């Protein structure tokens, strides 16, 4: 090949790439349009197929509807299921389905859809969500019954998960592996137009939509007629896009950016209660944390208030127990909650035989009180680690920080190579206690290595012997009270979810509904001008 | 030979460019060495009452997100950034000299295999090699040092090899061998000392690149473990306050840029003084 | 006179490696410049070509008159019109004198197209003709070859063709045969001599080979350490060399009547530009050195014959 | 020429084998495994085993390698564990963005670098040379993520000339191109400048001047052509960088690309995807070097003939 030919082919490639990209972005001027940026946790979703997905973005909640919606107060609301009923023994769930619902491809939504849908989870990574369902019976066109393998009061929670968006059976079976990539068909308020993985998804309004849930004011077609959801990994870049009007709304803003947001006149933000807790995890099998007194002293040395103020700029809540505050299970005996008490922490260590040396570092049996704090390289977590490091210095504990990527952190926890770790979880259900502290989950996710008969007995009751929701609540409270009394973790912070938007471009309802800013609020957002 | 090189250094410093850059680098090294005494505050002293404050008389470079003194952190950061890059390049040069000399001197299959691998890594983006290696070795400065050392190994191996190959063909080497000298003796006493000058100049310039690479790894949250500051780590955590405390990110960035510029200028001055053919960059 | 150099002084910063050079060449005449390397012969040629600034030097004093025009201080634009046109250069090493990445033909064409304003095909025709004149076999196919495909002697003929392409009046050949085999050397020198005779060119032939001088030149300038030490008709020079350096040079020519292994050489080395001895620069090596030679620099005195010598001893004789 | 290319291709086979070994095993040296990233609160240990079995992760590494290699020979790079899509499809989706930015940055740094190198060489040793060299040096000493943020601040936020981020059309390509290409300018300019200066010292250039050719013609038509040989070598060795080196740029400018794909896969220990990306890059690097050799040979008539 000669040089000229080489250069020519290079420029053709460049040109083609440029044109291809430009072509995909021809805007229709007259319609109200909006651009949202996905939150950092949602970035990199490879497709929008809720059944096969391990990572789903907000996009899925816009294309698909769920049977049941969950509100900000964790209450459940009908959507494609108009009503539901659980038999007293918990072994049968009956759902009445909404009528007149159609998929984007014109196919009707009915009982047959559900009978096709539930078995599709077999072998998928989301199988566990409907694991307790033995089979689905079609009672009539708009009534289905789930016959259970075991009682599962938590099924209703699972059905409100974003993985429970219902795709069109016809389109799903026809598209095969391409479903969620080149096409995605649901009954939701937005229809799929295009998707560039790692970059953006373009959606258009479903003008036939008339079955909005009662979480939305607008039950009909969404006000935004064309919605682009972009993926911007760097928070600074996303913020700059918002500032310059390239993006109208950020679905997720790190707390560190809020002061900068507040300084901008045309920007505003909304918050929703958080989805998880930032906490310190102990490894009870690694000294010195085998000793409950050391764990307790560590817990009392952490000043949640100071962390809230500096790391999280005062946004969110201090956490004093393990569950998010909107869960009723979180209301435990206040005396058991963990609060900052430096004096008592020092006293506990004195009693446990850890004597302060001249340099202020405690020593016992000739060994200094020196520990490793494992954390992952995400800003808030890293900063929490840094401030915890400074706070633990006050009780004579020397902390060395080890920052790893998230997978390596998990690997360390699994191998029990950690002593203390800054962790964060996102889960709005009390069964997270089982996940992190059940003996059956040693070594991971129960990386605390906690093995205790009493604790496990309370866990079994809560997980397997709760027939009703009320029973379940009471059982989980007792379970957490046992765990917190053993000082297996130090709750630190309950983040809120922040959504920032440009108020010269978008009108966002003052009060958000749902557990996250997803479909329920998206259909109510209006474009200004 | 040694005297010649010391003379060259003197000559380099005596030029304008060489003088200015030499003085800056000397100051920097002194600052890094005596960081604990020169810092106005302990680098890890948090004061949540004065977070993100703009530069002032009490805090010349302002404070960061924990109310720590940015100047103190930058001085200590210089220590981290310099020691990481110098150590890494030192290891890289040492390995590269041995590998390159062996390949260049003996040639053959061994040479071909090593050079294939070396060429491959040379064309691979350093940042990807470094990220991969840090993932394997683990975070912390050791990981970063080893990653940078390996990322730059190819350059020094290649350079040494080329030097040795061209020196080998010179007549005095044949003469030495004909006098009955062993390979090791020829290689280490005659060839390597002569090949050293360009490699050392290249090493100096690579130290600049290594500082940037360290900063970039710091941007991905790898490297210095908190509260130890490095310029890269400071820039990385500074991105979150880009608008309310821009000095936290701007000043370390400037420090990196200036240092690398001066290293390059000094390197150029040394090249000119040593009269090493500046060609080595192509090798 | 076609070219007249008077009291030429070339300087590089503080150094003046060439000084007080006076010589001339006429149409149809071959002037040889001889001397060891470092004597300033090539610098003098570079100065005539106006290429000194390229290597960081300049003419500090004196004049270079070409056909009546003083080239010193001539604007670069006008100098460029002469260069390759009326004055052409043939360089030392044919191996490196051609652009290895360009075909032979176009390299010859360049000067004709630039200075004679010929079109592509006219220039080609002229080049082919020149190549034939220079006894290059099969010019048409050589025209399309690359330099590496030719032998050294052939390449030197191409270099000569390149020089002739602009129809020059003055040709400067800087050691044109040094890099070539002995047999080829004689051929090339003969080609040059024939050119001068046939076309009436002026030729400055720079060489360190007295044999070449004897074969080709009409007049000779002997240079040592940047100065002309003797200027003479070629016959006079060989018959009666006056400067001790010239005498030594002539003694060094190998002759077949000499016994093997008795080739003589001038004792000592050429002093570097930075370490010139006071007085006559040849004095440390001179067999007939006098006290005056160590103090006073002798000047070149040219007599009515056009011959001259710069030597206290020779003048006194 | 064709023979030369073929010989080089045959030589690639053992290299390919070594590369495949390195690429396959290196990711297994990284602690952690992909399955943990698939597990969410509620999934059971049995599911863990199922997933491991599904991707063959329960077998020995050697067995896994053999399977992988077998599939590879049929052109199958496997399926991403985390993303559940064919690796080749994921690479194909990200490649255009990498190529777009990589080629733009390469053109930018090459053209600017050559121009700067030529000018600097032509004014060698003067103030022009010093300021060009200095300016380029300054540009190459700034970490690219930092430069990227700065460029966004100035040109997108304050001046509003170009979009902040994204990969939509040519206007969003400008800043990333500059941020990614600036470092390369210094390299290209340096090599060009030195090669130009070295070439200018050769006899044939003196002779060109002696022909009375205007200096800029000599520089551009003759000297530059010779100086391009080392520049082409340098560029051909940067192919890997073109495809995967812009990770930080991709991150800051929210662009998809091979680098980002690889890093994300690495963080999630998505073995097949990491292996696929690395293999892709390695092959691109090898082929890049090969193309460089061929182009270089094509440029130099001596080599062209010797290798014909």
UniProtKB/TrEMBL annotation, chain A:
UniProt cross-references to Pfam families, sorted A to Z: SBP_bac_5
Gene3D superfamilies, per the entry: Dipeptide-binding Protein, Domain 3, Periplasmic binding protein-like II
Major localization listed first in the record, in broad terms: periplasm
Residues of the Solute-binding protein family domain: 76-436
Signal sequence, start to end: none
Location of this chain's protein in the cell: Periplasm
Annotated family: Belongs to the bacterial solute-binding protein 5 family.
Annotated protein name in UniProt: Peptide/nickel transport system substrate-binding protein
Species, as recorded: Aminobacter ciceronei
Automatic annotation (TrEMBL), chain B:
Cellular component, GO annotation: plasma membrane
InterPro entries: BP-dependent_transpt_permease, MetI-like, MetI-like_sf, OppC_N
Keywords assigned: Cell membrane, Membrane, Peptide transport, Protein transport, Transmembrane, Transmembrane helix, Transport
Cellular location(s): Cell membrane
CDD domains tied to this protein: TM_PBP2 (cd06261)
GO process terms (BP): peptide transport; protein transport; transmembrane transport
Limits of the ABC transmembrane type-1 domain: 78-267
Source organism superkingdom: Bacteria
Transmembrane intervals: 20-38, 82-107, 127-154, 199-224, 244-274
Chief place of localization: membrane
Membrane topology, from the record: Multi-pass membrane protein
Pfam family, one: BPD_transp_1
Similarity comment: family membership: Belongs to the binding-protein-dependent transport system permease family.
Protein's recorded name: ABC-type dipeptide/oligopeptide/nickel transport system permease subunit
Native source species: Aminobacter aminovorans (Chelatobacter heintzii)
TrEMBL record, chain C:
Its membrane topology: Peripheral membrane protein
Alphabetical UniProt keywords: ATP-binding, Cell membrane, Membrane, Nucleotide-binding, Transport
Transport as UniProt keyword: yes
Gene Ontology MF: a single term: ATP hydrolysis activity
Gene Ontology annotations of biological process type: peptide transport; transmembrane transport
Family to which this protein belongs: Belongs to the ABC transporter superfamily.
NCBIfam families the record matches: oligo_HPY
PANTHER family: DIPEPTIDE TRANSPORT ATP-BINDING PROTEIN DPPD, OLIGOPEPTIDE TRANSPORT ATP-BINDING PROTEIN APPD
Name of the protein this chain belongs to: Oligopeptide/dipeptide ABC transporter ATP-binding protein
The organism of origin for this protein: Aminobacter aminovorans (Chelatobacter heintzii)
From TrEMBL, chain D:
Domain ABC transmembrane type-1: 95-292
Superkingdom in the source lineage: Bacteria
PROSITE patterns in the record: ABC_TM1 (PS50928)
Keywords for this protein: Cell membrane, Membrane, Transmembrane, Transmembrane helix, Transport
UniProt xrefs under InterPro entries: BPD_transp_1_N, MetI-like, MetI-like_sf
Membrane-spanning intervals of the chain: 9-30, 103-123, 135-161, 173-192, 227-253, 273-295
SUPFAM superfamilies in the record: MetI-like
Location of this chain's protein in the cell: Cell membrane
Membrane topology: Multi-pass membrane protein
PANTHER family noted in UniProt: DIPEPTIDE TRANSPORT SYSTEM PERMEASE PROTEIN DPPB-RELATED (PTHR43163)
Protein family (similarity comment): Belongs to the binding-protein-dependent transport system permease family.
Protein name: Peptide/nickel transport system permease protein
Protein source organism: Aminobacter ciceronei
Lineage: Bacteria, Pseudomonadati, Pseudomonadota, Alphaproteobacteria, Hyphomicrobiales
